[in-house]
Amino acid sequence: MNPTELPEWSALAQRRRALDQVRIPALFQSDPKREERFRFEAATLVADLSRNFLDTETMSALVALARATGLEARRDALLGGAIVNPSEQRPAWHTALRTAPADGATASRLAMDRERFLQFAQALRAGQVRGAGGEAIDTVVCIGIGGSDLGPRLVTEALGPSSGPRVMFASNLDSADLQESLRRCAPATTLFACISKSFSTLETMENLGAALAWLKAEGPGLAPASHLAAVTSQPERACAFGIDPERIFTFPDWVGGRFSLWSACGIGIAVAHGREAFEDLLEGAGALDAHFAQAPLESNLPTLLGMLGLWYVNFWGVNSRAVIPYAHRLRKLPAYLQQLEMESLGKRVDLSGRALAIDTGPVVWGEVGSNAQHSVFQWLHQGTGWIPLDILLVAANDESSDARLRQLNQFARAQADALAWGDALLGAASPPPHAACCGNRPSTLISLPRLDARSIGALLALHEHRVFVQSVAWSVNAFDQWGVEIGKRLMALRNQGSSVRQ
Fold first, then answer.
1. Residues 457-477: pLDDT tens digits?
2. Are 186 and 151 found together in one domain?
3. Active-site positions?
4. What is the CATH number of the domain that holds 241?
5. Residues 137, 199: one domain?
6. Mind spelling out the 3-state secondary structure of 109-176?
7. Residue 141 main-chain phi, psi, to 5 deg
8. Are 445 and 56 in contact (CB under 8 A)?
9. Domain boundaries, position 252
10. Quick one: which of 282, 333, 363 has its CA closest to 150?
11. Which of 213, 289, 314, 426 has its CA at a distance of 20 to 30 angstroms from the CA of residue 402?
């Protein structure tokens, strides 16, 4: 399906022309209830879309396009475990990891897999898992890359200091990354958790080998098997490597890497913060899943955010968006969303293999607030171009006894207003050209009630479904990543001595 051939696409082109000369402040002037009208809630999250190039007619047209592209049926297929990844003939049923599916056999298997790794995490937290020398494990180094690293690392950091064993992460093939963790480890009390869906990812296996070499050099006489665990969809490979089957935790091969933190891949989260936190994470995501499944498209937050993204890419020619979380513990969110969105939507052909005539996923980037205010906000306020922003804040900070946290939220809201209204809000005389900030730059404010596991689960599920909405509208496969493979294949050819350039 070519969405540009739909009448709903043409209707949006008309809306674009209608808003061409309209400024964001004027939209507020013409609608005193605009902020209320463009405020949406889902699973305790609140999104304020009022500072965007939107009016009610445009919002209705965006929803109409989503409906015309078959979003509701495709959503039901996704949530029902149907094959939605045609190039690999797989479901993408990661939602089943957080909400028990109707299929009893699948639900039972997933529950068993979850219980195994949660019990192991609890045993680690209780000091019951011991190294070869009999000392309790007090440090877990999670070795993975991509989705096996970004999501679990983000959540582990977002939930704050560990209440259990220290959990660290190593992903980069550059030895400096692993060495940074090893400098803080004692061989007798360290466990390495290798997280790899295939148990063959080059970077992960190289780092695992380096970790074992360090263990043998720094802890002579320690049996490596007592210091290893694995998370994989290929348990026989982990077993052949020498890892104790009791410490091999599995998940289905239909769970994509960037959607895998809800599985045993999130073992670091459970070790650092406990079973209850991990289960709360699943509950928060499940609540957002239920909203996505049940809410009418007109108030369906993933649908609205996804179609707003399409609106900017295809009708305003914007090829980038920024994510600015005003919470230090969410500092890894931009990197996580880079993978989620750019790996899912960086596609140039549609589901039928035909070249697309329209742009798809934009570049995603960001920086934590308030640091961003002293760097990229110069371009955002006064650059010759503009891009939409997502500004995230934690509502509980408004009532914090820490003045700095209250100021964070004040800054977040002030920046959103400054982007929209510019220096007109200051009420002063016109500034000189070099100091002028013209405003009329869009942003979306997303508020979490607090920085806890439920809210973080909902936030990440929101973005997963936002991506899926856009993939449906653009008719692309959000669940494969063939572009990730080409460099690996080329390196393998070079290592074999093959000529790769003519």
1. 999 999 999 999 999 999 999
2. yes
3. 343, 374, 488
4. 3.40.50.10490
5. yes
6. HHHHHHHHHHHHHHHHHCCCCECCCCCECCEEEEECCHHHCHHHHHHHHHCCCCCCCEEEEECCCCHH
7. -105, 115
8. no
9. 94-273
10. 333
11. 426
